[in-house]
Fold:
Amino acid sequence: MAFQMIPNDDPSERGKTGILLDSILFGYSEIFFARHRLVGLIFLLATVVRPLGTSSHNLMHGHWAALCGLGSIVLANGLALRLKMHPDSVREGFMGYNALLVGLAIPSLFEPSPAMFFMLLISVVAVVFVTTGLRTTLGYHFNLPVLSVPFLLVIYSTIYSLPVMRTLELHESWLDFGTTIPFLPDFLSSYLQALGAVFFAPNDYSGGLILLGLLIFSRYAVFLTMVGFGGAWIMVNHVFNLPQQDLSLYIAFNFMLTTLALGGVWFVPQRSSLLLAVGGMLICAAVLAGTSGMMTELGLPVLILPFNVTMLLMLPALRQRTEDNEPKSVDFISGSPEANRDFYKTRLARFGTRFSQRIELPVRGTWTCTQGVDGDLTHKGPWRHGFDFEVADQDGNFHSNAGTSREDYFCWKLPVLACGAGKVVRIVDNVPDNDIGEINTLQNWGNLVMIEHAIGLYSVVCHLAKNSVKVTEGALVRSGDVVGFCGSSGRSPKPHLHVQLQATRRIGAPTIHGEFQDVVLQQKQLELRTVLVPDEGQKIRRIDRQDEVAELFDFPLGRTLICDVSLNGKSWREKIETEMDLYGNLRLVSSDQKAMLFFENRLSSFLVLDYQGPKQSALFAMACAMSRVPLEESSRLEFSDVLPSHNFLSGVRRLWGDLKSGNIGPSVNIDYCFVRRGNDLIIRGQGEDSLGGQFTTQAVFKEGVGASEFSLTTSSLDMKVVMEQDDG
Structure:
């Protein structure tokens, strides 16, 4: 596939057109938590299609609703852009899907009249401001999604305006139930009608198109909606005293959206998240039972209220857990349920950590673990997950001379660092240091610094030297900040550092599982471990960042790279730009190939966080060739990573992986090493996929320039990328 650049094309105008088109299609697909152009187009068509058996009066209403829905989302997104709302927020559909629901609801619920169109215009404008306000309030202050709350607020206000609006009348018979696809079982017909009802088109044809769109987006999403519909069917037939037609009108889709949101969108698909989805469905049933009668008395339709109430109850509650696991929340940019599962599996394989917050070694240089988990001395019972560290010389000695004074020990008064970013919550700084061989059991932990990194995650560094603490309670620290100096206070017969993680801020609280990220294990070769639980006797250290290496991986905002790409004999040019998205993530973007590479340039390493796009993009070769690079050049340093397998699979194999209960998973392993060639720093990689296929990568960085060449060779790909800076 060749690409020819069009030099006369106006990128600004092309960008505006692209944003508006994406905002429309993503707005439709966002109703089912998707962000997919084809799915959005299919959902749009689902609002237009009406069954042949529909009366001409209701058919007109259906087509009016489809047209008004499309016009409303265009108006809302255009207004948001005009008001200088963030383009990414508009493009991704967040500003438009509530306006779409308003545009579909008002022509469906009211008879066509000047007053109806007037109210529609006002409502669409209002929903833009309500959405923006709630995104600020719920998102910034409470970290909650807006959902369809703006739609409910606006549509309920519109209904209450009936008595004061001339010619504004309710349309009582807009629904047309009945199987319009011959020989379709009643259960399946009701399921399709429930899907269509989300877009105010409760008929089999619209529901069938929506089902097709969902199948394209996610097979697991279809499964979750079927679970929700099954629960709604049981409730209507055996629990609720409600009309059967209400199953497809509003009951089922509240249950379906609840199971989809909890089972695969906001939580990683797992057995536990499926159980959570079922539990959420029961809560939704309770909310529906408690609100349906009240809403009827108020003269308001239930619509999607139970789903919104359920989510706004459950999400804040679930964020109070002390451990984010089983079910695991989606704490990254959400995609399809399959993509969420694959990304999480890949993250576990790449980083292996149980915590969302990085925990790093609290020391500089090489230290030896002298007591680990379940140690022989003090790491017992509730305090089994602790680590003691000291410094040894080349001969394995921990002190000079006879070791009879504190000053003889190599670790004495060495800096102790913060394990990670957080807030200092407890300090002790006045406990005297012990003479060699003595211990202080009354002040067991000695001088210490305790840092809160996240809810239920605290690190403690103990036995610090007296009056050496350099931080105060309440201070915010970054990973690597000096918090004190190694000493011998408390239960410490000789200078050493004790480190532990715990779930509360109480001094002496029981320990929890402890681990450290990005640890260099010093053996015959230097091996970078993404996560390590140190064993007794292991010599370990942090990555020793080198500024000259870090500069090679600098992709500053605004930089443009022009790439000459060759793939299996074909060649083209591709432009890559550095951007920052709505969430503050740095990314390299190829608008030519519709590809994005999310990256992070940490203090110690360069990381490719995710790649989205086709294999034809230069960014794909970059993602494979430099997925993880420690910013420390050494020919002795070996490092490895795990690449998402779906990037290497054909469409058929990827679909089969999605359908399998265990998924194919992240099983593309690659080993890297540094090589110097003159002034060029080369990173060579060699890997093997889950089926035994071999592949090699190479990344070349030129001193003073940065990224220069990338290559990727597999059984089916032979790709090379040569880069140059665009000074214009």
Observations:
- Residues 1-15, 659-666 have pLDDT under 50 and may be disordered.
- The chain has four domains: 11-217, 220-331, 367-514, 548-725.
- Residues 11-217 form a domain with the Ammonium transporter fold fold (CATH 1.10.3430.10).
